[in-house]
């Protein structure tokens, strides 16, 4: 058994062979030690056909290498991953739909410097490993140019170092964990961070003269822990007395914990978690007659869908208010409702804004094949034409923006104030 090596230059010579025997030189390193391998004339034609097949196969493999086809070069491929099914589906669907709405508008207006944006979409189901697998496929098989995602902090923390290693510019619309962008110059975010909103929430509590707060922390959530830690640290600086109680991601019955909290009679209960869990907590708190002021982070957005009544009077940090009179906000809301027949939540607004950031950045890039040029254009973005307010990136590629506080009134989200 031996391996036969063919160079492109050798193929024409082989195919034109008319001698009675076909002579092939075997490399010196071959076990046959450089002897000539002879084919008899009777087998010559058959062997030439075999060699022709081998040659054609080799040429096919070369022509189908890792580069992009001409068709692929006419589009900008953007990978998008989020939870489209499971407990966090409302977040993933809203964020991705907001982004896709903006992409539709961009493409209908002619695209980016003549190129259309193609969205490559995947469902992470809210699972870290699912998100990792989807991202790896997008890079190796789909050949994405840019990545938008993930929607929640856990999967984003896992994908961010992979995007950095592959030098794929990444923008997460809604992941708030600080470490997502830390020490990764290819990774950006549209939303503010856990520490940022945690600090502002504590300052807001102080501005309302609240003196004692109990924090309810989900120990199984990076998002919840991040906000809780930032709030505690800033509250201590503000002279606010803080107690903390904890639960796990699997907990569904919070009555014992809430009964304990009721006994300490806090003015404020700060619950940094997502709306589905918060809804259960609020429902059980009402049953127990707890009347404290509930306060939260942007994960509360969506609470109005199923828990609007029990959330009445609650306040939470956000970046989007449906009743904001801004022309940019109202134009977005109208377009989103026309496209999806549903009211947008903050995740949709942030997804849409991410599309706007990309549009502005990419239009300033002369060579769209350069990932470094795309990264630099995103870094230099600064704009006020965003649904969630004016934005510029700091040295860690996190946005500097105001926090909008939302109050739940009669099952609806209303603008309380910008702080």
Taking all Cα atoms into account, the compactness measure Rg is: 29 Å
Low-confidence stretches: 1-43, 51-66
Nearest-integer average pLDDT: 87
Determine the structural class based on helices, strands and strand pairing: alpha/beta
Walk across the major sheet and give the strand order.
9-8-10-11-12-16-17
The major β-sheet equals: 7 strands, mixed
For the secondary structure, the number of strands is 17
Could you say which overall geometry the principal axes of the C-alpha atoms support? Answer: globular
Structural summary, described in words:
By secondary structure, the chain is α/β, with parallel strands linked by helices. The chain is 42% helix and 19% strand. The chain has helices spanning 10-15, 41-63, 89-108, 128-142, 153-166, 194-207, 222-238, 255-264, 275-287, 303-307, 327-340, 346-363, 371-379, and strands at 22-25, 36-39, 75-82, 116-123, 146-148, 170-172, 187-189, 212-218, 241-247, 268-270, 293-296, 315-318, 382-383, 391-393, 399-400, 404-409, 412-418. Strands 9-8-10-11-12-16-17 form a seven-stranded mixed beta sheet, with helices on one face. Helix 3 links the parallel strand 3 and strand 4. Helix 3 (89-108) packs parallel to helix 12, helix 4 (128-142) runs parallel beside helix 5 and helix 6 packs parallel to helix 7. It is globular and about 65 Å long. It starts with 9 loop residues before the first helix and ends with a strand. The model is unreliable at 1-43 and 51-66 (pLDDT under 50).
